[in-house]
Amino acid sequence: MAALSGVKILELAESVSGEYCGKLLADFGAEVIKIETPGVGSPTRRMGPFSRTAPSKRQPASVPGSTTSDARNEDVERSGLFAYLNTGKQSIELDLLQNKSILSRLLSQVDAVIDDHTLEWLSALGLDAVQQQCMHPGLVVCSISNFGLEPPQDRLHAEDLNVFHSSGWGFHTPTGGDPTLPPLNGAGRFLPSYEAGLEAALCISAALLAKRQTGEGQFIEISKQEVLASRVDYVLAQMMGGDMNVSQCRTALDLSGPAGIFPCEDGFVYIWLSAPAHWQGLRELLGDPAWMQAFPENWLEKACTPERVATCRRHLVQWLKTQGKEQAAERAQQLGVTLVAVNNAADLVDSPQYQFREFFVELEHPVLGNLKYPTVPYRMSETPAKPMSPAPLLGQCQAVEWQQPQTHPAQVEHND
Amino acid sequence: MTKRNRGGPLQGVRVVELTKVWAGPYTGKLLAFLGAEVIRVESEKSLDVTRVYGVSDINNAPGFKAVNPEKLSVQIDMKSAEGIQLLLDLVQKSDVLIENLRPGAVQRLGLDYTTVKAVKPDIVYTSMGMYGNEGPLSYQTGYAPCFAALGGVSALVGYENESPAGMNVRYADSTFGAAAALATVAALYHRNETGRGQFVDVSAVEAMSSMIGDALMSFTLNGEIATSTGNRHPDMAPHGVYPCLDNEWICVAVRDDKTWHTLAQQMTSAAGSVEVEMSRFTTLPQRKANEDALDHCLASWTQSQRADELVEKLQQLGIAATKSLNSIELISDVHLWAREFYREVHGPDGQSQSIVGPGWKMSRGATIENAAPSLGQHNDYIFGDVLGLSEAERRALDGRGVIR
Q: In angstroms, rounded to a whole number, what is the distance separating the alpha carbons of residues A279 and A275?
């Protein structure tokens, strides 16, 4: 049993945010149909990482419902990004603007639509907020965009880097940033898109719940900038209330103290130090050397001078040169010291905790082969959420009712 | 049934929050913003650190107010048996319980899933922990930057060929909270369809990993371990943050060759022009191969210009260019005010306060007009209307310190 069993979603989205949203809902068991440009497919099919090992001329072996030629497909099926973002979905090749009657039939069969294009595009398809209300009152339509559907003139063109730096996170990354060096992008290529996709999935799920009770859909507009800025509410609201200083300072969001990332024997660790108990534990961990005895007991809270922070950091660096990250972390936890490994992808695949929770699952993709996929951060006792099948090949749609839109048995139950 | 008719998709859903600091309260805030009635259980004996730390008035605590708008507050002492019984009575009349207490705390309190399920069989019970509820490392605890470090996020942020620098120290709690909110709503959908509740076990570290899923795929696909590469992007060049006059920074991301040529033309023609060795930068592979030179060239051009003027000029040419907003610019952002992302709400004392709104607009959204509650602001409603306690019963409980 899956949480969103019986829900049907049409995905018009073609970038990471909308596709990630659709993936999250497919993981909950929703039936997600992805519309792709005929012969070309989603732009994310042409974004890396690309498989280096998948045989390039391999025929996608007897794929039910696939309507496209295999030769044309060999390159559009090699993207690890597309494979990740589109697990559990089905794919239909369709030029939407040329086939509005087919779109209209599809719309009559689904509960929700995910899009991440412009307002003009939504309007041309008859799916902007006004048309949703008039023409499709029972449909949930969710739009994801960088700055909302009506961005100001100086924010018409943006990538995730731009959004990240329009939200407060960018200017203040990293913590303790050197003002002479450029502020940094967030982790990876698409963090703002994943955040927005998560928010969109939350809103769609809530709107679907309401739709089941009232029969009414709604129009949802997700702004990536606002999603990211709302993630720093704890600080931002205090700044607005005058309870925290605003400035042109790169450290305006920071907390003081010696916390940070340090190199160790086999990688890096993160150490958090803020309370006397942390300091006590750390003294024990390091064998209470003379320099620590010279510090006041409560220095972290009451006497955290830049000199002490520098001294502390210098000694930590020395000590960590001989420490492995896992061993240090394990002893630290026993002593109440917040010292953790800075993990990389290989560490996560090897993590006993991730293995216990089955965070990575294996799926067999006809072109990419058998691969481990990262999944979702929640374990649900009744309705486990995880990818049910690999990403579709271009045009691979197995559901018969989608192929023959004139028959729609599921509709009767859903629009009552 | 619930106190106020605020509309929104989760209207009629009642949530009990046993949470602390930021992540758990953020989950509750999202549900409240979607229309749920979210009740924060508090007690004089164990006030949340955000109500008290460095705060002179617990009912005017800046950190608490930031993450708890549109919630109700009830006082129940969870360290007394009577308090626990009262809480179970409240849960029995609720749909969702959210907790982000320390590992093992709900078991010690007698509020674990099995116990709660016995009084409310269809409860959606959302448990939030650094590593989740079970497993070999589930006993471990940490703060937000630990989630980011353990989940693989920190390793990807930093300057090229240097130690990782990590995200800003504030990152992680709210993202973790949002993931928990999503799973909670999906579980509620299932409950409404089938009548069955469930246990939802959310891991902060995994929430971080889910923000870098493609980087993890890169490893499982090709064995590549991603590291920090400054502001660079494998599919775009230039892609960076460049200095402007007055210590300001401009972010420029160029998606294709055509856009690059438009940019290069500006760099070489207009006032303050620089020399660009075009033959080295014609295609993306060339620009990636000569990226140090490319970035240097761009920085030498931007550093003599005003960021806002340059943004305007480049945007008109179709180039993704924006300022990196500092905290002053962020809270005075005209666009965010115009969209009512920042908005005024009413505090318990009637005063208006500014809060940060949700990341969405909904045509049938919930009204958001109330600030965070004062301690026990909704005791009357919860004890009277919801639990049906008489005045005498309340006085007796109060006398024994159960509802302070």
A: 7
Q: Across the strands, what pairs with B239?
A: B253
Q: Please, which residues 141-170 of chain B have a Cβ atom closer than 8 Å to chain A?
A: 141-143, 145-146, 148-159, 163-170
Phi, psi (deg, nearest 5) at residue B179? -65, -40
Beginning with the edge strand found earlier in the chain, give each strand of the sheet holding B249-253 in spatial order: B239-243, B249-253, B320-323
Residue B49 to residue B42: CA distance in whole angstroms: 11
Task: Give chain A's length.
Answer: 416
CB A114 within 8 A of CB A30: no
Helix (H) or strand (E) holding B52, with range, is: helix B49-52
User: Model confidence over B234-279: pLDDT tens digits?
Assistant: 999 999 999 999 999 999 999 999 999 999 999 998 777 888 889 9
Nearest residue to B170 (alpha-carbon basis) of A259, A271, A338, A175: A175
Residues 6+ apart with CB under 8 A from A399: A31, A33, A90
Question: Which residues are CB-contacts of A389 (< 8 A; sequence separation ≥ 6)?
Answer: A87, A88, A363
pLDDT of amino acid A69:
44
pLDDT for residue B77 is more than 90: yes
CB contact under 8 A, A237 and B65: yes
> Which segments of A1-130 are extended strands (E)?
8-11, 31-36, 89-93, 112-115
Q: What DSSP element (H or E) covers B96? A: strand B96-99
pLDDT band, very low/low/confident/very high, at B2 (cuts 50, 70, 90): low
What tokens does B134 get? Answer: 């079970």
Per-residue pLDDT band for A53 (boundaries 50, 70, 90) equals: confident
Interface confidence: ipTM more than 0.90: yes
Q: How far is A55 from chain B (nearest CA, A)?
A: 13
Confidence category of residue A60, pLDDT binned at 50, 70, 90: very low
Residue A256: pLDDT band by 50, 70, 90 thresholds?
A: confident
Q: Which of B173, B330, B345 to mutate to test the interface with A (most CBs of A within 10 A)?
A: B330
Residue B38 near chain A (CB below 8 Å): no
The model's pTM is 0.96
**CB atoms near residue A179 (< 10 Å):** 10
Q: Does residue A54 carry a pLDDT above 80? A: no
Give buried/exposed letters for A361-372 (b at 16+ CB in 10 A, else e): eebebbbbeebb
Examine residue A183 and say whether the peptide bond preceding it is cis (omega within 30 degrees of 0).
Answer: no
| Tokens 């892609």 found at | B239
Q: How far is B56 from B67, CA to CA, in rounded Å?
A: 18
H or E segment and range at residue A334? helix A325-334
CB atoms within 10 A of CB A168: 29
Determine the distance in angstroms separating the CA of A126 from the nearest CA of chain B, rounded to an integer.
16
